[in-house]
Amino acid sequence: MGPVTLAFLLAALAWALVAGAHLRQRHPVWFWHLTGYPVTALRVVRTWRKVAILTDLTASPRPARGLLGDLVVKGEALRPVAPRISFPKATRTGLSVLVRLHPGQTPAPFIQAADALAHAWKVHAVRVTSPERGLVHLVATAGDPLQKPGLATVKPTLLSALLGICEGGGAWVMNLRKVPHWLIVGATQSGKSTLLARLIVQFAPQPVALVGIDCKGGMELGLFSLRLSALATSRREAVAVLGALVARMHQRMELCRTHDARSIWELPAKLRPVPIVVIVDELAELYLSDGTRESKTEAEKCSTSLLRIVQLGAALGLHVIVAGQRVGSELGPGVTALRAQLAGRICHRVNDPGTAEMTLGDLNKDAVAVAQSITAEEKGVAVCTGTGGGWERARSHLTTVEEAHKTAATYGHLTPELLDLRKALYDLVVRRDAGQ
Ligand SMILES: Nc1ncnc2c1ncn2[C@@H]1O[C@H](COP(=O)(O)OP(=O)(O)OP(=O)(O)O)[C@@H](O)[C@H]1O
Questions:
Q1: Is 380 in the pocket of ligand 1 (CB under 6 A)?
Q2: CB 322 within 8 A of CB 338
Q3: pLDDT tens digit string along 417-429?
Q4: Phi-psi region for residue 257, left (φ > 0), alpha (ψ -120 to 50) or beta?
Q5: Taking every annotated instance into account, which residue ranges of this chain make up the domain FtsK (predicted)?
Q6: CA distance 295 to 284
């Protein structure tokens, strides 16, 4: 090889490296389609049989026992057959494979083998779902898209909030018209309050009343006080606000009954009351009692009112979003009933397996395992339900204090007046000043 050819080859290599780096940064999806996908697809096809055998995903056409003269011989089948797979199809962030199950096979061993598949295919994660009987869908994500999340775009609709991005690259949306009440769980510093802030930023421009209950002295939700129709910063205030909301709920019931409507959405637009979203930061502050009669009574009142709102409120335009570090029965007898009514679940990093189990366990076992694997560095990362595919890993958009102030100032004039709630809070002040 002459020096000119060598120089040309080196220049071409250097150009390819620079172009590759540019493509990877500017057009990661193209980069994946041109480079990562072909290699990974070939790896999937080449390793499938071996991986299937090692992870017990095969079936044997012959029984694993036979007769040798008068002896029954038990042992491994000679030729285990791996289930058939489709050719891997490229997705924006990885690839997907459809597996046709052998008769007698179920998706369960595939869910257990997901980690082994991710290692064999050298991808970040493999998700297993079963879109129809006899089929298993394996979705592999090449890298972790939540490391440097961008922000997806969606058309804004009433009572829906774009929270961040899902692992599959789609938008993470909370839609209260579809799932009316939500539970957000996570250890301290896992990202709960940031998620609540994001929710308020998203609901602030909408014709929606926002009511805050932040018994940590209003430190988190107080940032948005200009856009909140009421803010309770202690449990005493929470009792008053929740009581007023229950009374308001009964008025709405009567209004619907008078107009033969089964929900506020069936009422004529000019009669329809404004939807109310109640946001509770740190549930435990409402339930825990120091043993005194007064604190027990307050906790019971909070528990009863919250439960009534989540049981009856959805059709009446009352929605509840509750955040807390734990949601176990140790907080009080009402918590388990409340949790059962909060159909939407979001689980950030947790300190103990029990909390992840309580938050997601009734939905999907492998969602629990994924929630437990969220590390302390992955702030804002959570496993969420209600995304269409059962559950998904997602990361919220980081809302800064400046953004919170700006939102409250910009949309403060849209705050609906809920005079009964304000009056309930005012009466408390009057009673306190009167020494009652
Ligand atoms: N989506 C995110 N992306 C990047 N950083 C985040 C994200 N969400 C939260 N954080 C960071 O994590 C830290 C803790 O977040 P946050 O206060 O929301 O946690 P928390 O669960 O409410 O904690 P606590 O229970 O102690 O109030 C914040 O400093 C914030 O900057």
A1: yes
A2: yes
A3: 999 998 999 988 8
A4: alpha
A5: 169-357
A6: 13
Claim to verify: residue 262 and residue 114 sit in the same structural domain: no
Strand partners, 165: 171, 395
| Contact by Cβ (8 Å): 149, 167 | no
What's the mean pLDDT in 147-154? 65
**pTM, 2 dp:** 0.79
Q: Is there a domain that residue 358 lies in?
A: yes
pLDDT band at 432 (very low <50, low <70, confident <90, very high): confident
Q: Give, as one character, the DSSP assignment of residue 399.
A: P
ipTM score over 0.90, yes or no: yes
Per the CB < 8 A criterion, the answer to whether 311 and 244 are in contact is: no
**Average of per-residue pLDDT across 11-31:** 72
Out of 165, 167, 190, 374, give the residue to mutate to test ligand 1, the one with the largest number of ligand atoms within 8 Å of its CB.
190
Cα of 178 vs centre of ligand 1, distance in Å, is 27
Neighbours of 254 (CB within 10 A): 9
- Annotated binding residues for ATP: 186-193
Name 211's bridge partners. Answer: 230, 278
DSSP 8-state class, residue 176: T
Per-residue pLDDT tens digits for 29-74:
788 888 889 999 999 999 999 999 998 888 876 666 677 777 777 7
113 and 177 in a common domain: no
The secondary element (H helix, E strand) that includes residue 193 is helix 192-203
225 has pLDDT over 60 = yes
CA distances from 197 to 20, 378, 396 (A): 38, 18, 10
Q: Are 267 and 259 spatial neighbours (Cβ–Cβ below 8 Å)? A: yes
266 CA → ligand 1 middle, Å: 39
pLDDT in tens, 375-405: 898 899 999 987 655 788 899 999 999 999 9
Ligand 1: distance of its center to the CA of 303 in Å? 27
**Are residues 170 and 136 located together in one domain of the fold?**
no
